[in-house]
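Task card 7
Instruction: Convert sequence to structure tokens.
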Amino acid sequence: MGYLNEFRLNWTNLLGAGLGLAFGSAFNHYMMNLFGPALIGEFGWSRSQFALVGSLGLIGMLVTPIAGRIADVLGPRTATMIGFSVIPTGFIALSFMTGPIWQFYTILMVKSAIGIIATTMTFTRVVIERFDRARGMALACLLSCPPLVGAIAAPIIGHIIEVDGWRTAYRVMALVSATAGIAAVMLISKYVDAAGNRRPPAPKLDWAEFREFCRNPVFVLLLAGMFLVNFPQVLVSSQMSIMMMENGASAAYATALVSIYASTVIVGRFIGGYALDRVAPHFVAIVSLGLPALGFLLLASPIDAGWALALAISLVGLAQGAETDVASVLTSRRFAIGHYSFILSLLMTSMGLASALGSMLLSVTLHGGGNFKLFLIICAAATLGGALCFFLTGTMGARHDRRMGELA
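Output:
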């Protein structure tokens, strides 16, 4: 099948997956900070209580592998139905809160624990099953949907909160999410291969096979790589403006740098997607995932000129999210498709753990008036190590395959 022909035949499934990914669990991720001031102001919660919301992601990490296995067994379409039966309901429940902080925590925990199924591990499988030659570019299109929707929806939801109140905003989000979920289910068709056969049942997964995964060097390297390259995640998720201002940027220029970062993220995704369709994934990984190390070292250096900050943040942005594209392609090429969502869910768990531990280490390094330099140097080393792990999947993976062939 031709490169563009894959898009012509499968664009409805790609659109459905994009809607599901953008308006699933990721939708609340991009909107959460908008509700903070209104909720704190009305209910008198402290900022530290509201900040604990970030730790609720650890609950999602515990159930992510279970959700991945469900997506493998039931298929993305049914998994989407399950996820979107909870996410809009959660938004409605949030709109009826009466004040106790435990209500907020409980609703978000339930929404996270079940809604986690409406995330990357489910919707990338839609692409993996239907795209081959254009897999990298299709993944780039899919994974660009959440930040694009977030950029468009954030000012709209913010305006609704300001004019009509946070309760109305949550109900609007529930309506939008439910509508997008229904559209996603309708657009994602039941999988049928080139010969007209439906998806075979997911293979059984017993402890012996799981141990085999753990002994596979490709899996171990992917797990380590995902952990290391996501260790600096806290910098881009919540500390960017503060870090830029510490490096001498004005408040206005720090805001401009955030915009530059967001733009380079999308550009980097499409460059990476194009490259993945033409170059071996491990070569793409060493280049794209190694770039942030240069950016972190530049930020840690004494150079604080505006051009240097813009260059550094652009290098970080070009690679942001590339690990998901590379990991999705490598997982789909190196493991049975029947286990795809489960394996990717384990990689996502590694990613979440790295982000949490990175946040803790940053807190330690900043304690007592410290600056970002030590943490930036650690991040540069971690990023280089992660890029190397992804690169070694090409050499060590091939060696493992030859050994397995000889044993067979």
